[in-house]
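The material for today's practical consists of a large collection of protein records. Getting from the letters to the C-alpha cells is the skill we practise here. To make this concrete, we reproduce a full record directly below:
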Amino acid sequence: VAPIQGTRLNSVIFINYDSVVGPLYEALYSQLFVAFIAIAICAFLITLLCRVLFIPLANVSDALALIAQGGGDLTQRINIKTNDEVGELANNFNTFVGSLQGLILHVRGQSKELEQLAQFGASNSDKAVGDLEQQKQEITLVVTAVSEMASSTKEIAFNALESVSYTHLRAHET
C-alpha cells in the first residue's frame, strides 16, 4: 500500500508471488546446475591434466626406487619427452646414472685387477715358502755332512795321533 500524493487515496498492488519468485528460483536452479556441471568438468580435466603431467615424474620416481632397492639396471635410461622441469630432472637423472654406471665399471675393473695381484702375491708367497723349505732341508743336509766330516776328521786325527804315538813308542823300543 502506498499513498497517492495530493489525494486521500492509496494505491494497492497485488502480485502473484509464484509468478515473481518462480522465475528467480528457476534461474537459480539452472545456474546451480550449470555451476555443478562446470565444477565436475573442471575437476575431471584437472585430474586428467595432473596425470598427464606427472607421468614423467612418476617414471623418474620409479627408476630411482629401483636403484634404491638394489635391483636397478644402470643401463636403462628414462625417455625424455618434454623440455620442462620434469624433462630436465629426467635428463639429470640419466646423466647421474651414466656416471654411476661408469664408476661401478671402473670399480669392477679395479677389483678384478686387485684380485689378480692378490693371486699373484699368494702364488709368489707359496713359492717362497717352498723355496725356504727346500733351503732348510739343504742346510740340514750340509750341517749333517759337516757334522759327519768333523766326526770323521776327529777320528782320523785320533787315529793319526795313535799311529804317531805307536810309531814313537816303537822307535824308542828299538
Observations:
- The beta strands are 2-3, 10-11.
